[in-house]
Write a structure and sequence with these properties.
The complex is a heterodimer of chains A (112) and B (499).
Chain A lengths: L1 H19 L4 H21 L26 H31 L10
Chain B lengths: L1 H21 L4 H29 L2 E3 L12 E3 L1 H26 L7 H17 L3 H19 L5 H32 L4 H10 L3 H19 L7 H5 L5 H26 L4 H24 L4 H22 L2 H31 L11 H4 L1 H15 L5 H16 L2 H27 L17 H19 L1 H16 L2 H8 L4
Antiparallel strand pairs in B: 1-2
């Protein structure tokens, strides 16, 4: 599983960087969205993926058996998704303001 | 009790911010809440500083989950010093902002955002694990995004696009780095990571993750060649906001660099040994040369932030006790002086006509006390004895001589002289030359409020005191550096057990 996800993460990062280098603010925003999702998937897959073994302590046992899925990366991603969502929402609102103010979304306007 | 004390630097700004939201429609009450909250934060952080000096490294575990499983808040000498200085800047800027924001009270949420930002900064200084550091960084950044675009002018929006984009990219790099590190070590607690990575034979793992952190924090700190966002955005917000940013935000990046390269990536001297000195030198030179070409006071000062960051990183790069002590001394000195210079720039702009040097002049006769107040931090920034800047530069340069990094020492000295030239330029244009003719559409002169004089004078006095009483500050910085270079005590305090 991991090699597959490694490729997916790599492709997402590459696509994100490509979009970040475009000249249009909307494309920049797409790049940022891809970038934050790439990082989230990286966190999910870096510790290794375990299928169908949720970390519940089996009935009668005191501790977890070996080989269960690690819940922490998922908790981290949940936080990271929320933060990323907030920041991206701000970025989109900012983009709209820029468009209303400048009537142009080409990055050329950043030069003033 | 100790536990509670460690939570207060986070909860006090949070409570203040929430209260400011409630009273936002009443201008006077909101301002009162904002200033009192900042005052309480300063007191709390000073108490914490004293307690850390008495009791050593303080650790709190919210929810009583033992490290490395739960969240840990840690205050050592460096954290405590940074917190105290954050409290000081918070109070000074909030008082100053009374004049600046009183005129445009559509900034109803100013004090709420201001305190959310302080909460993020304080949280970052206290965080004991990497993910919490990330979360506090984001709290700080999101507040700064909104503060940066308060007026929604074209200039601010354009600056904010750069600022938001680069900071988002830097956060993602940080997140990716900590994800990979967690994947390989199974921990995010910094003390635990330090222990595990010391035992680790996997040089590739250490090298790759340290580069992630170097780039992520390097962007936030404004290191060469990742600093272009800073002069592109810091001149746009209201001056009180710019002063707060210039004092605190990049320095959180420097703090994170110092923390991660003294605690987590200690064994990786090969990379830091090669890269950091070069980056430090280039950062100093790029910042100071960039400033020469500018004629907006705020842009000149912004570029000088970058060159000063170079000195702090030089101390980190040399990695001797003396050099690190120099870095910490420099951090303390720089936050006070740089914030003060931005605040004074705001007063210059009110007494004259805006921030552009071509519009200014004749202020030496019009505002002699302002001229005096400008001279103190300006000389301090350039490193004239006996002000604080002299000692901070002196320590770092001496550490450079001891380790034989002559190229860096020469760079640091030349950059010091160039800084003086830049300060002289502001002095000559704004204070010495005659008042230029002005057009109809120039910004009118405004009066300078008492609320502006008081914090500026107080910060100037503190600069002088740090210079005169350099020895106690230096002793403190040396203890802090010793603590950083021997992480055993930090690890033992966080994880329990014997060092």
């Amino acid at each position: 599983m991991e090699p597959f996800w490694a490729v997916i993460v790599g492709v997402l990062f590459a696509a994100a960087v490509y979009m970040l280098l475009r000249r249009h603010l909307a494309k920049l925003a797409i790049g940022l969205i891809l970038l934050s999702n790439a990082a989230n998937l990286l966190i999910l897959s870096a510790p290794g993926l375990v299928r169908g073994r949720p970390d519940f302590v089996p009935e009668g046992a005191q501790v977890l058996g070996p080989g269960h899925a690690d819940p922490l990366p998922q908790a981290l991603i949940l936080t990271a998704i929320v933060i990323g969502f907030g920041v991206l929402a701000f970025f989109l609102a900012l983009m709209r303001r820029v468009f209303l103010e400048v009537s142009d979304l080409d990055v050329e306007m950043l030069k003033e | 009790m100790i536990d509670l004390l460690l939570f207060l630097p986070i909860t006090v700004p949070l409570a203040t911010a929430l209260l400011s939201v409630i009273v936002r429609d009443r201008a006077r009450t909101s301002a009162f809440v904002g200033v009192v909250g900042a005052g309480v934060l300063l007191v709390v952080n000073l108490v914490l500083l004293v307690r850390v000096q008495d009791l050593g490294i303080l650790v709190a575990r919210p929810g009583n989950w033992d490290a490395p499983f739960g969240i840990t808040l840690v205050a050592d000498y460096l954290s405590a010093a940074m917190l105290a200085i954050t409290g000081l800047i918070g109070l000074a800027v909030s008082v100053y902002a009374l004049t600046d924001t009183a005129e445009r009270y559509r900034h109803k949420n100013f004090f709420a955002l201001f305190h959310f930002l302080l909460m993020g900064v304080c949280g970052a200084f206290l965080a004991g694990d990497l993910f919490n550091l990330y979360v506090w960084f984001e709290v700080m950044l999101i507040s700064s995004f909104v503060l940066l675009t308060l007026d929604r002018s074209r200039e601010q929006l354009v600056g904010a696009v750069q600022y938001v984009t680069i900071n988002l990219v830097s956060s993602v790099i940080f997140l990716a780095g900590l994800g990979l590190l967690y994947g390989n070590t199974g921990t995010l607690n910094m003390a635990d990571l330090a222990q595990k990575l010391t035992l680790s034979e996997d040089a590739m793992l250490i090298l790759s993750s340290s580069v992630f952190f170097l780039i992520a924090f390097g962007i936030k700190a404004g290191l060469f060649p990742l600093f272009f966002w800073l002069p592109g955005s810091y001149h746009t917000p209201p001056i009180a906001v710019a002063a707060l940013f210039s004092g605190l935000l990049t320095k959180v990046g420097v703090y994170a660099l110092i923390r991660s390269f003294t605690l987590i990536f200690t064994q990786d001297q090969g990379l830091t040994g090669l890269l950091l000195p070069a980056i430090a030198g280039a950062t100093m030179v790029a910042g100071v040369l960039g400033a020469v070409a500018q004629s907006d006071i705020r842009k000149i000062l912004s570029f000088h932030i970058i060159s000063q960051i170079g000195y702090m990183i030089m101390g980190l790069a040399l990695m001797t006790p003396l050099a690190l002590a120099g870095s910490i001394f420099y951090l303390i000195h720089h936050i006070v002086v740089k914030t003060n210079l931005f605040l004074i720039a705001g007063m210059i702009a009110r007494a004259g006509r805006g921030f552009h040097l071509s519009k200014l002049g004749g202020l030496l006769n019009a505002k002699p006390y302002l001229a005096l107040l400008f001279l103190i931090p300006a000389f301090s920034l350039a490193g004239i004895p006996p002000l604080s800047g002299f000692f901070s530069k002196f320590i770092i340069i001496r550490a450079g001589l001891e380790t034989g990094d002559i190229a860096l020492v020469v760079t640091a000295l030349v950059v010091g002289v160039l800084t003086l030239i830049s300060m002289t330029k502001i002095w000559q244009e704004a204070f010495w030359k005659a008042q230029p003719e002005h057009d109809e559409d120039d910004q009118p002169k405004k009066s300078v409020g008492v609320a502006q004089w008081v914090p500026v004078a107080a910060l100037a006095v503190i600069t002088v005191i740090i210079g005169i009483a350099a020895e106690p500050v230096m002793n403190f910085a040396e203890t802090a550096a010793t603590q950083l270079l021997d992480p055993a005590a930090y690890i033992a305090a966080v994880l329990g057990g014997q060092p």
